[in-house]
Write a structure and sequence with these properties.
Blueprint: H1 2-5, E1 9-11, H2 18-28, E2 31-33, H3 41-53, H4 55-70, H5 73-88
Parallel strand pairs: 1-2
C-alpha cells in the first residue's frame, strides 16, 4: 500500500517473504530496512528521520507510486494467466 501511495517506508521484516520484499523496496530506493534485532525506539526514530529528511526516498517513492497507480494490475495478471493457459493447453 505504501508503494502505491508513493510514500517511503521503514520496513522491519519478520519472516517468510518479508526479508525478500524488504530487500526489493530498499533496492528501489523507496525504503530503509531495520533488522528485527535492532528494533528499538531510538533506532526507529533515527531511521525515520533519515527517510523524512532525505528527499531521494520521497522522490523515488512518488515515482514508483505513479507507475503503480497507472497500471491495471488485475487486467495485466488476467492477460498473463490467459496467455499461459493458451500456451500450455493441449488441443482437444
Amino acid at each position: 500500500m505504501a508503494l502505491r501511495a508513493g510514500r517511503p517506508t521503514l520496513v522491519m521484516p519478520y519472516s517468510h517473504d518479508q526479508p525478500d520484499n524488504a530487500a526489493r523496496v530498499e533496492r528501489l530506493g523507496t525504503s530503509r530496512t531495520l533488522p528485527r534485532k535492532q528494533y528499538a525506539a531510538a533506532r526507529v526514530a533515527k531511521e525515520l528521520r533519515e527517510l523524512l529528511n532525505n528527499s531521494s526516498y520521497t522522490a523515488k517513492a512518488a515515482a514508483i507510486g505513479q507507475m503503480i497507480q497507472a497500471e491495471n494490475g488485475v487486467i495485466v495478471a488476467c492477460d498473463a494467466i490467459e496467455q499461459q493457459l493458451q500456451v500450455t493447453s493441449i488441443p482437444a
